[in-house]
Write the structure tokens for this entry.
Amino acid sequence: MKKALTKLQRTHYKRAFLSNNTGSVIVSFAIMLPTIFICMLVSINYTQSMRTRAQISEATNEASLAIVAINNENTNITAVEQNKKVALNYLNYYLNKAVSDNENDAYIDIQYNQTKREYYVTYRQTFDTVIDHQQLSESAKQTVISNKTESYGNTRKTYMSETFDVAFIADFSGSGSCPYNNYNCNDYVGTINDTQRLAYMKTAISSIIDEFKHYPEYRFALVPYDVGVPVVNNQTNPAGGESYACSVMYKMKTPFDDIDYNFWANKNILYTKWSRLKENNIISDYLNYDYIGNYENPIFYYLDYYYYFYYAKIIGPALGYYNNQQLVDGGLCIFQNYIDQPNMGSAQYACGINNSDYPLNTNNRNIVRNQYAKIVQLYDYMFSGNYPNVHYSFANTQTVDVLGTIDTLFSQMNNNTITFNRSISPTVADFSPFQGMCQSPLYNNNIMSEKMVNLSYYQRFNEASKHVKSFSLSPYLIPFSDAEDHNVNLLNEIKSGEWRPGGGTDTITALLRTVPIMAKSNALNKVMIIITDGKDDVGADELREQFLENGTCQAITNGLTSVTNQKHGYIDKVAKSAVIHYIKLDPNASHLTTDSDYQAVYGSWYTQCMNSDKQFLHVATDYQSLLDAMRKIVISETGSFINKN
């Protein structure tokens, strides 16, 4: 019979066991460590595979949206290849690495269900494992990852039959001449080539319209702008070339709300004289000075003289008339007096006397008498430099009723739309007090150019006169229409037109001027896409802030979806959705993450217009990124996903 062990013996026994088996633990860990290490590698690789699979799933989801937007229905090999190319572009973007449709390591398939009108994107790719370790077999060093269409991943997109009207609000200001890779450029460069911001904007807009041109569900409009929006006036200029008008939409403050802007658009108001009188304390208030009572004859003389001067220096040379007698013989002017008679109120020669805006007609003399003080004050706001929050537009922080404009955005849009014929001339005060507005068509026709900067006063007129007879309006506002071939006509107009930027930047003016275009839209979904480098003129930025802070964007989108507005006839059709997107042509707007990042770059467009919703803000650095941004906008507003069961 065994004797029981004492407590001391039991303790000694345990210690003896441990002391006699020292090597067993080390051997166990030596055997287990490689296995643990391999398990860790497999786990890491599996996690990475799941991450990559999620990226592929997301990429194929986006690709399916892009493909249904193109909607070529896989009709032939070319259509299939086009769809594959689009899908691969999205995969490259989301995976941040080059992938391809290569049978050795990748497979992509695009299917179209004719009955359901749905598209399916299938993709799989062989990827190397995260950790290449010698203990892993060759087969374990690679893994096949796909979007697993049979189980959960690939989103299908139903082709929608709803209607969509998309307006491109395109910035044609001088900074559009900057190379797209010059991040800090904000000046007129002048040189025309394919690297300019405006050049790739034109190509991208054309590409989008080309994709959708044959689908009646989609219609497009173009709203080009600098300081104001150029519009067609269906007139010729006095030399026989085309003409154009400039348009904005604002409710003006009193007394600027009853000015005949079209009459004054080609007049010289002798501001230099009035500014001198104010410096000498003869004029204390531009609005309340009695110009007519003190200087009626000189005022009408200079109005008459500079009307003649335009014909003598621009129109006459454009037609081959280089002296006064030739102007008379050519029927442009008449001889009035042997000499100029400032104190009698008439110039030696009078030109264009049958024109409706000739300043010495009886009716027009009354306009001068009633409105002269207002136009002098307007000019002072624009060009004196005494108002830091004002820019070179008669619509500025001193003259515009911001709240009144927003309140009457739809109810008085016709009354608030101000349009004036633009003088086809270099931008000098001799020929227009509104010289700073709607300049881009002038640059587009070499009426203004980089060359003119270095020319003398009269040389500028001589150079401009060479292009007046052949003046062809571009760019200009092209609204929606019900014509069956509207998109094709718009595309042809854009492709055939010269796009050369020029002038300042006033984005809020362009957005507001788009409202009447969208109000006439009959689509269920209305999309406004602002495309700009984001750098408004000093003064224009102040006006923009006032509008955005007072809810302009919300007033626009709510107004377009208002049943009441349709009942009152303010809009043609109530929209189911109305949205504003903002694309900034600026690489500095890339890689933003936080709210403060977005606010620093986009300002009130982010905080006020978009209500801090990032999905409505986009960045483009070149043609491809701009095209992708616009396509994403159009796609995101044109349908919904169909989830698999």
User: Anything to note?
Assistant: The domain at 164-188+198-231+474-642 is CATH 3.40.50.410 (Rossmann fold).
